[in-house]
Amino acid sequence: MKINDSLPLEYRTEENSNKIFGFWLFLGAEIALFSTLFAVYLTLWNRTGSGPTGKELFELNGVIWETFLLLTSSFTCGLGIHAMRLNLKKPMIVFFVLTLLMGLGFLGIEITEFVNYVHEGATLQTSAFLSSLFVLLGTHGLHVTMGILWGAGILIQVGRQGFTDETANKSFIFSLYWHFLDVVWIFIFSFVYMKGLM
Amino acid sequence: MARLFPIRHVIGYIFSLILSVVGLGVVFWDLNPTAGLWILIVCALIQASLQLVLFMHIGETDNKKSLYFNIAYALFVGLVTIFGTLFTMLWGW
């Protein structure tokens, strides 16, 4: 096996750098996926029928907290990878645990928000606006949920095995995914919430 | 302790927070919708680029050209999807 020591651990074998490259291709497909959902939302956002409009529905407080938690979790996730490259296991685990906890906090707020919407009579079936909103936010939220489970699995492996070619590679790929979810959230924050409340 | 917080990451984080606050501003400043929308577009694009470059290290390997091309192609497909939809469904073309 060819090993290139000049690269960070997660890239060193050819298989691993291919996996990272492959994951970037996957993120390209994710961009296309979220673009279709944004296209639907931006087409239907003022088709509110007899249901509430975004301006009546959105609560700024929850959105600010969601944004703050996800931004900060993306930051700590990056710090975790930095610590991994310094071969510091404990700080890396601490940063990743913080990342996942903030992800859970984000999910908690989003689920509360959905429950509140439904209690106010704003369900998936109420209007075209709400259908497209729930599908867009739900797809992002589902990605965060999967990310938390995936990240927790990787943390267990890092805890047991330390940094190996494999665990370092998995952790780095997870970090790409997590940063990408933050990028998607930036667009949701801007073009769903801020645009809706403007 | 300091070496756990590399300057690039800290700067990226601070700028992300600032750009989010500017984005929030469009709700409070009572701008006209076109100006507000442009502020949102510019802030979102800068913030997404910060994530790609400072946090995801898109430019750190030898195949960075392929990565840039991949993201550019995905953005092209995404923008055609979004604006193509808006052209036909909303703007009456």
Automatic annotation (TrEMBL), chain A:
A GO BP annotation: aerobic electron transport chain
EC number: 1.10.3.-
Spans traversing the lipid bilayer: 21-42, 62-81, 93-109, 129-156, 176-194
Main location: membrane
Ranges of residues in domain Heme-copper oxidase subunit III family profile: 21-197
Pfam families in alphabetical order: COX3 (PF00510)
InterPro entries linked: Cyt_c/ubiquinol_Oxase_su3, Cyt_c_oxidase-like_su3, Cyt_c_oxidase_su3-like_sf, Cyt_c_oxidase_su3_a-hlx, QoxC, Ubiquinol_oxase_su3_dom
Keywords for the protein's UniProt record, in alphabetical order: Cell membrane, Membrane, Oxidoreductase, Transmembrane, Transmembrane helix
Protein's cellular compartments: Cell membrane
Reactions catalysed, as given in the entry: 2 a quinol + O2 = 2 a quinone + 2 H2O
GO CC field: plasma membrane
Family classification: Belongs to the cytochrome c oxidase subunit 3 family.
Functional note: Catalyzes quinol oxidation with the concomitant reduction of oxygen to water.
Name used for this protein in its record: Quinol oxidase subunit 3
Organism, scientific name: Paenibacillus rhizosphaerae
Species lineage: Bacteria, Bacillati, Bacillota, Bacilli, Bacillales
Automatic annotation (TrEMBL), chain B:
UniProt keyword annotation of Ribonucleoprotein present: no
Record field: catalytic activity: 2 a quinol + O2 = 2 a quinone + 2 H2O
A GO CC term assigned to this protein in UniProt: cytochrome o ubiquinol oxidase complex
InterPro entries referenced in this protein's UniProt entry, alphabetically: Cyt_c_oxidase_su4_prok, Cytochrome_c_oxidase_bac_sub4, QoxD
Localization, UniProt: Cell membrane
Primary location class: membrane
Keywords, alphabetical: Cell membrane, Membrane, Oxidoreductase, Transmembrane, Transmembrane helix
Topology in the lipid bilayer: Multi-pass membrane protein
Enzyme class: oxidoreductase
One MF annotation (Gene Ontology) recorded for this entry: oxidoreductase activity, acting on diphenols and related substances as donors, oxygen as acceptor
EC number(s) per entry: 1.10.3.-
BP terms from Gene Ontology: aerobic electron transport chain; ATP synthesis coupled electron transport; electron transport coupled proton transport
Transmembrane segments annotated in the record for this chain: 12-29, 35-55, 67-91
Described purpose of this protein according to its UniProt entry: Catalyzes quinol oxidation with the concomitant reduction of oxygen to water.
Membership in a protein family: Belongs to the cytochrome c oxidase bacterial subunit 4 family.
Protein name: Quinol oxidase subunit 4
Lineage, highest ranks first: Bacteria, Bacillati, Bacillota, Bacilli, Bacillales
